[in-house]
UniProtKB/TrEMBL annotation, chains A, B:
It comes from the Bacteria. Residues 490-526 form the ATP-grasp domain. It comes from Bellilinea caldifistulae. Pfam families: ATP-grasp_5 (PF13549), CoA_binding_2 (PF13380), Ligase_CoA_2 (PF19045), Succ_CoA_lig (PF13607). InterPro entries: Acyl-CoA_Synth/Transferase, ATP-grasp, ATP_grasp_subdomain_1, CoA-bd, Ligase_CoA_dom, NAD(P)-bd_dom_sf, Succ_CoA_lig_flav_dom, Succinyl-CoA_synth-like. One of its GO terms (molecular function) is ATP binding. This is ATP-grasp domain-containing protein. In the N-terminal section; belongs to the acetate CoA ligase alpha subunit family. Keywords: ATP-binding, Ligase, Nucleotide-binding. The lineage of its organism: Bacteria, Bacillati, Chloroflexota, Anaerolineae, Anaerolineales.
């Protein structure tokens, strides 16, 4: 684990290089923020033109700043930064935050400057945050190297943002809502330190209970996944990714100057490493807030305690849409509620105590609900009523949920009259949401994460019986080719143990007939030609040939007809294949993602993959369980698992092919794309009927 | 149009019956609210035990209240209400709001009381709002018969809520956000006045620019659709429906004591009548706020003006996910921007002016974007920066967007430092959202509504060439049956002009062979038996019979085999059908919804309808265009329209069958369910191959 980042959050001394004495400068704002939130270390403004700023002694250069000094924050024009960085290195500083922009994000010249500072940093074994960022803050050490106005309350959320603006906007939004942060880091261009580095630091940081992340792009996807797989069994990661759509990805690219990559790969990576993907900025903090202080639900059965039916109905919809159920209360619970609540109250779940419900009734109902063994989580709804004090209700909720055995979320529907209640609830670690749909979404995310935690450890599937050398030889021979035809993909797949329909090449009618006899009838013929990729378009496939004479005739007809239609094509013979039995056809594919590497695809075969887009993705390497998950994530999974009472197909055979194809992709980076289309799946076993490989 | 409801919003005088002098009573709260917001009419508390309350003269009973008096608000225990209502009737009051609960929502006894007050009201031609509601308010007349603390700003949203709690929560939430309301009505049990009545009133009410509705159930679905179809071409209706899921519907039922019905019917009804369906409470007001004051977009091309790239990327995603595009700016626009903005700014769309952007730059960029002919709408993003004053940016936006040719929405990402800006923007009719995902969703809804407005008028498809009498006779004969077999559905479908595969009943091997000769080979045989619904399960279907002898043999074998397996089944003969040509199979069905009547279903045939749930719904009657829409809403629509360059199938033939089936359902309410499964569709024409009808 990476501990070297502590200096960015809790250094013993900080120099602000370029600190201005002019109050409307950003660097002045940073210096002021350094003084405002209880930071106990040395604060050293560096500015040759001032003696002191904000009552702090000013230094002419970094060399003259005395110890202790762990961190330098640079706010200077970009061209001045290399020399300053050199000076920092000489001074022995190993942690630097570069706030200034003017680097990669402004084009090639800036990119060159960015390479230069990275080279300097590496020479001095310095770690860099930025450039082009808004700095870091730590609510426990009091460090604040940002110029954002105000800070959040102290709490358990560690927030990492690639966008300083998103970070600033969020702080502005939550600062009066008592949503507690442990720390915040804005990473800008990530010239050195990336989101993954900070995730690793925060995973060990004591005050951080949940890691919230906003990213526009993850450069080293494999490293991110490895880190996340280590962290998420202990600490949740909630992440919002910009650039889910083509338009969003283009916006990210034009803004960051980097390629965003496909969201299918991101989504797969998040699923495979237990990262909770947020859909919106508010979603990110709605979920993080709950994970920071509430226990995880042990199941999906929720009790609703409310003083109004409408919001409870909206919450019920949201729970159902997020995989949760309305708990069936025990008769014991219902009779206890009946004995105490308004006689007209609903004691079935939702427990609707009606508009007149007072704080003691809330207390009693929540107590009963949490004690019910059929209840895994509770949501308390309060709609402001003229005669009920929300703060008192909040106190009762805090009191009852003190033991923290089961998660308790609340919806106090309003703003004006529930401000104080929110402060009390949030300070006590109980999330309060304004609208009733939110707790449903949040509990859904908590449940998903709880299930992830229960999963066994990650262990990538391993095969021994594949012939790497044979595969290397075939690919070596394919040297300059762009694509491999079936005659080449067959032995390649065979080398990795992927089951193929029985087949054999033949170069004359007689050879074909002989091959057919050996394979067994009926057979199919497929043309072998480096110039024909889509064989069926040119009459290059003949099916269901039943005897040697049919095979001979078909061979001759095929050769003549193609020679007529494509006189320039090189015809090297045919592939004779035994016709496979009936079965369910699926597709297994791979394309190489720029950030994550081999991205494996599974989907239903035929016209339906295109019509319904019924596909799922995973990043290789993957476990047997992940391979099975990716099948079940599609509708095709239902079809294979014994739809409408049919006997199920051989899922394990499909899993096997997925894993072997993944291994092949991992072993040979020169393979850009692969596809087995179709893989025909039987009640026992599966056979690849056709394959296609594109080299990079 | 219904104008009788004016007394509920702008009466000349109001009596509060049961007004208490005790400040912690709800009825006191109502009286106080009546005095707080500028209401100019008479306010008459009725309470025999007080002389005056809040300085207002108190009357011992309703009879003694002088004119003018248009509205009575009753806040008394339920049992006292019938007598009071009688007195109101005698006094000549024609508009009454009953705040009190204790009616249908508490069980059968309350339901009886509710029937009683409805009877009294109808005797006096009185209109009722409630019971069990929180009353009405009108920001222009100053009327406020609720006990909610505070009111929203004046504005253009008319809000109708079946739940008083949701209404109260919303007011509490928005009151300091400067989201303007014209009026609000909470309808409670809807004993008399329903959401549809108030929609009709608000459609003509001058201050109401958009009608926002929260409903838990719509009892008279057909009337609602008719009203909405009249209103939405002029005024938008945005609606949130609780009970979308099974769990939500059960919560609604237990809370309202009524059946919620299926959400498929609601969703279809909203689509067919131009109602914008909101997904959450915040969605309801996010959308309504924009529709109240902004013009509709003429197309889907959006310009983004921002001072930060991250939020612009998030907005880009949201735009793409909601059917909008990032506008391609003209070179003219880009060069103008280049000339004026920071040299490092992005002048392609999103227009990213970078963190230092000042109010004049916002003004210039927005001006340029709105002037670009490639732009249909603009979203302005501001992330608070230490040195930029959000209020000044707001002023510039207000100034530039004054002409209101194209919609302008804003996202000021924060809370603490953007409060004043929000007030200014909202007071000027420019929506400000906190998070960048929201304007994408809102513009999507605006675009959908704009397209609805451009549609031609509603005109249900009409057929003349169907034989209602013949159909009536068949159904009459089917009297006590629960289900109709194919022998009965065939003539019924024929009577309504639904094309059927050629077929004929036969009662002996010879008759069957003779029928086959007449129909043409190959043919299929299907057993006719009132005791066998699923023919294929018992060997009751034989396909592809090619000559008379095959037909005779198949007939005999079928009869013997079924007689052996089901000795008690009555076997009435077989249906001989010509085998239909190959084609694409679809399903057309109907079931009767308790609130909306005939709900028509279209979907892809075979295993895929169940696997993918690829179906769409519409409420009958429907237009040709709606029938076509429902096909295109499914993936099957793509398959029929000429997928992958294939020749398209005959969509109009499918439309025709949908409309004829709808007509049959409308004409004969005793048909509970119908299904044509499959309808085989050809390049020209379509044929029903099998049908099933269930009677109620």
């Amino acid at each position: 684990m990476q501990h070297g980042l502590k200096s960015f959050f809790a250094p013993r001394g900080v120099a602000i290089i370029g600190a201005s004495a002019t109050p409307n400068k950003l660097s002045y704002g940073i210096l002021r923020n350094m003084t405002l939130y209880g930071y106990q270390g040395q604060i050293a403004p560096v500015n040759p033109k001032a003696d002191q700023i904000l009552g702090l002694k000013c230094y002419p250069d970094i060399t003259s700043v005395p110890d202790p000094l762990d961190l330098a924050v640079i706010v200077l024009p970009a061209p001045a930064i290399p020399a300053t960085l050199e000076a920092c290195g000489q001074r022995g500083i190993r942690a630097v935050i570069i706030i200034s922009g003017g680097f990669k994000e402004v084009g090639e010249q800036g990119a060159a400057l960015e390479r230069q500072i990275l080279e300097i940093a590496s020479r001095y074994q310095m770690r860099l945050i930025g450039p082009n960022c808004v700095g870091t803050l730590d609510l426990y050490s009091g460090l604040n190297t940002t110029f954002i106005q105000g800070v959040p309350e102290r709490g358990g959320i560690g927030f990492i943002s690639q966008s300083g603006a998103v970070g600033g906007g969020v702080v502005d939004y939550i600062r009066d809502k008592f949503i507690g942060f442990a720390n915040f880091a804005s990473l800008g261009n990530e010239a050195d330190i990336t989101e993954t580095d900070v995730i690793e630091y925060l995973s060990e940081e004591e005050h951080t209970r949940v890691i919230a992340v906003y990213v526009e792009m993850i450069r080293d996807g494999q490293r991110f996944m490895q880190a996340a797989r280590r962290v998420t069994p202990q600490k949740p990661i909630v992440l919002l990714k910009a650039g889910r759509t083509g338009a969003g990805a283009r916006a990210v690219s034009s803004h960051t100057g980097s390629l965003a990559g496909s969201h299918a790969a991101y989504r797969a990576a998040f699923q495979q490493s237990g990262v909770i993907e947020a859909q919106t900025v508010s979603d990110l903090f709605d979920i993080s807030m709950a994970l920071a202080h509430q226990p995880l639900p042990q199941g999906n059965r929720v009790a609703i305690i409310t003083n109004a039916g409408g919001p409870a109905a909206l919450l019920s919809d949201s729970l159902a849409e997020n995989g949760l159920q309305i708990a069936d209360l025990e008769e014991h619970t219902r009779s206890a509620l009946r004995g105490r609540l308004n006689p007209a109250a609903q004691v079935a779940n939702p427990i609707d105590m009606l508009g007149g419900a007072e704080p003691p009734e809330y207390e009693f109902a929540l107590q009963q609900a949490l004690a019910d063994p059929n209840v895994d989580a509770a949501v308390v709804i309060l709609v402001p009523q003229a005669l009920v004090n929300p703060l008192e209700v909040a106190e009762k909720i805090i009191h009852v949920s003190g033991s923290r055995q089961k998660p308790v979320l609340t919806c106090f529907m309003g703003e004006w009259s529930v401000q104080q209640a929110r402060q009390r609830l949030h300070s006590s670690g109980i999330p309060m949401y304004v609208f009733p749909e939110i707790p449903g979404r949040v509990l859904g995310a908590m449940l998903q994460y709880a299930r992830w935690r229960q999963q066994s450890e990650f262990e990538a599937a391993q095969f021994n019986e594949f012939d790497r050398a044979a595969a290397a030889q075939i690919l070596g021979q394919a040297g300059g080719q762009e694509a491999l035809g079936e005659a080449q993909t067959r032995p390649l797949f065979e080398a990795y143990g992927i089951p193929l329909v029985a087949g054999q090449a033949a170069h004359s009618p007689e050879e074909a007939a002989e091959a057919a006899r050996r394979l067994g009838f009926p057979v199919a013929l497929k043309i072998i030609s480096p110039d024909i990729l889509h064989k069926s378009d040119f009459g290059g496939i003949r099916l269901n040939l039943n005897d040697p004479q049919e095979v001979r005739t078909a061979y001759q007809e095929m050769m003549e007809s193609i020679a007529n239609r494509l006189p320039q094509a090189r015809l090297e013979g045919v592939l004779v294949e035994r016709m496979a039995d009936k079965g369910q056809e699926v597709i297994i594919g791979m394309r190489r993602d720029p950030n994550f590497g081999p991205l494996i695809m599974f989907g239903l075969g035929g016209v339906y993959v295109e019509l319904f887009g019924d596909v799922s993705f995973r990043v290789a390497p993957l476990t047997r369980r992940e391979a099975l998950d990716m099948i079940h994530q599609t509708h095709a999974g239902k079809l294979l698992s014994g739809f409408r009472g049919e006997e199920p197909y051989d899922l394990q055979a499909v899993v096997d092919v997925i894993l072997r194809l993944s291994q092949l992709a991992l072993d040979f980076p020169q393979i850009a794309e692969m596809e087995i289309n179709p893989l025909r799946v039987f009640r026992q076993g599966a056979l690849a009927l056709d394959g296609r490989i594109i080299l990079s």
